[in-house]
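Hi W.,

Here's what went into the run:
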Amino acid sequence: MENLTIRTANLQDYEALLTFEQAVVEAERPFNSSIKAEGAVYYDIKHLLKGDDANLAVVEINEEIIATGYAQIRASKKSLSHEKHAYLGFMFVAAEYRGLGINKLVMENLIDWSKAQGILDIYLDVYSENNAAIKAYEKIGFTPSLVEMKLNVGT
Ligand SMILES: CC(C)(COP(=O)(O)OP(=O)(O)OC[C@H]1O[C@@H](n2cnc3c(N)ncnc32)[C@H](O)[C@@H]1OP(=O)(O)O)[C@@H](O)C(=O)NCCC(=O)NCCS
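Here's what came out:
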């Protein structure tokens, strides 16, 4: 695709990333009725931008951000054979560019970064009804693992 670049995000991208974060919230709202009506925040973007334990990637077309995603190295459960894993999040592609393999590009970039940090186990969370995202992740090789279940006993 013409003029497509992928790079690590920096502080100058902060305002744009806040807008993209809200786009992810809106995309997931149909899958979770408990998301706050206003002021739902998903990520600590400033921390992700510092880059000590994370790589926040952005894809640009003609110097405009059209896709995001991060990998963050996290401590794994003590019961697991790996001490650390990479967690992927903030996966978003602007609607007009979906289905073109742009998320694949982002994920491959994040997986390469994780491998370079010596991390070989990669995790992410996705709503079970988010079929487009699940298909995209399966194409990379992800398979379903833990299922979160919930119950509201308030009424
Ligand atoms: C999930 C998302 C990031 C995928 O990005 P993308 O760039 O479209 O993904 P890719 O082009 O790499 O997709 C690869 C596969 O995903 C599947 N896919 C993509 N868009 C799809 C759609 N609208 N419906 C069904 N499957 C879809 C296809 O199987 C596709 O492979 P194919 O084109 O060879 O058939 C994008 O749909 C998105 O931003 N969604 C809204 C935000 C979101 O839900 N983020 C995920 C949070 S966990």
